[in-house]
């Protein structure tokens, strides 16, 4: 009954977003973007206490004034990301191509030529929704390993945006079965691996000056499928485009020590965040009691 209700509501949510996505980016940024920034930062202070607390603990050498400036830049990034994601509802592959620059794809292609699966791990940094263009830019199949959202309506909208250019969305609990079933068809699987894994997770890492539970599903999947593991990094360029680069974590996951892959990922993500803190998802309740 609940799913039927959400399905009935879907057109009433989808089409207004789609119409807004048709606006030129500059107009959307000047109108909707400014409005969203004013509402989220100036009026409602969306999760402001969480953002300040996360920033203060993660960047202890920063002054309070610097923390406030990073927080302000984060809200600007959050709004910019929202506008970019709305634009993805209608943008053509050619338009998205202009917003994304891939670096070091030779690394991926070399493993694909060796008939190897590849797992790319990344954090909630930059605008990961732009990764939906990868299937149109790479000569092999690309999956997004994800945890389905509890809200069926939002889950359907996410599926639409991420799957527009051929990305296959695979629920995390089906990822191993999916890759083993298609072991003769090497492919790239993208894994956002910095979400809170739950209090029952025993492995902890020193991440951003805090003892942090880290999700190790990507590591387990890599070992089970003997996949090469790469770190995917996003950097915002001066022209408001995104540079996506890949660097090797390991090509022999079965030979790594316990939690080595997860630790390497955490260290690389930490360095990315320190380069430009404003682009990480500070509003996420990452450190829970």
Give the overall shape, derived from the CA principal axes: globular
| Structural category | alpha/beta
* Strands ordered across the widest β-sheet: 1-9-8-2-5-3-4
Give the percentage of residues in beta strands: 15-25%
Q: Would you identify the regions where 5 or more consecutive residues have pLDDT less than 50?
A: none
Instruction: Please provide the count of β strands.
Output: 9
Figure out the total of helices.
Answer: 11
Helix percent band: 40-55%
Radius of gyration: 19 Å
Strand-and-helix sequence, N→C? HHHHHEHEHEHEHEEEHEEH
The biggest sheet amounts to: 7 strands, mixed
**Span between termini:** 35 Å
- Summarize model confidence as the mean pLDDT: 94
Break the fold down into its secondary structure elements and pairings.
Blueprint: H1 2-21, H2 25-43, H3 48-58, H4 64-87, H5 93-97, E1 100-103, H6 105-113, E2 118-122, H7 134-137, E3 142-146, H8 152-163, E4 168-171, H9 175-181, E5 188-192, E6 204-207, E7 210-213, H10 217-225, E8 228-236, E9 242-250, H11 260-275
Parallel strand pairs: 1-9, 2-5, 2-8, 3-4, 3-5
Antiparallel strand pairs: 6-7, 8-9
Helix pairs in contact: 1-8, 2-4, 3-4
């Amino acid at each position: 009954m609940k799913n039927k209700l959400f399905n009935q509501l879907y057109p009433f949510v989808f089409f207004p977003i789609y119409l807004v996505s048709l606006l030129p980016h500059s107009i959307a940024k000047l109108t909707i973007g400014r409005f969203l920034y004013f509402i989220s930062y100036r009026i409602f202070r969306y999760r402001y206490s969480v953002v300040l607390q996360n920033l203060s603990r993660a960047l202890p050498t920063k002054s309070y004034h610097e923390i406030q400036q990073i927080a302000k830049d984060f809200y600007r990034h959050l709004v910019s990301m929202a506008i970019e994601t709305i634009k993805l509802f209608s943008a053509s592959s050619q338009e998205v191509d202009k917003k994304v620059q891939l670096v070091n794809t030779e690394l991926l292609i070399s493993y694909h030529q060796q008939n190897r699966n590849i797992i790319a791990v990344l954090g909630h940094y930059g605008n990961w929704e732009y990764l939906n263009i990868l299937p149109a830019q790479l000569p092999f199949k690309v999956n997004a390993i994800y945890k389905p959202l509890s809200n069926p309506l939002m889950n359907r909208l996410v599926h639409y945006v991420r799957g527009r250019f051929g990305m296959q969305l695979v629920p995390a609990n089906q990822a191993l079965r999916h890759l083993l079933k298609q072991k003769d068809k090497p492919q790239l699987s993208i894994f956002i691996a910095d979400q809170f894994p739950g209090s029952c997770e025993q492995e902890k890492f020193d991440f951003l000056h805090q003892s942090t539970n880290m999700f190790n599903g990507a590591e387990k999947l890599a070992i089970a499928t003997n996949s090469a593991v790469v770190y995917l990094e996003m950097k915002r360029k001066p022209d408001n485009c995104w540079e996506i680069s890949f660097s090797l974590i390991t090509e022999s996951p079965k030979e790594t020590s316990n939690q080595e892959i997860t630790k390497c990922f955490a260290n690389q993500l930490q360095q990315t965040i320190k380069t430009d803190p404003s682009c990480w998802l500070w509003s996420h309740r990452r450190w829970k009691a």
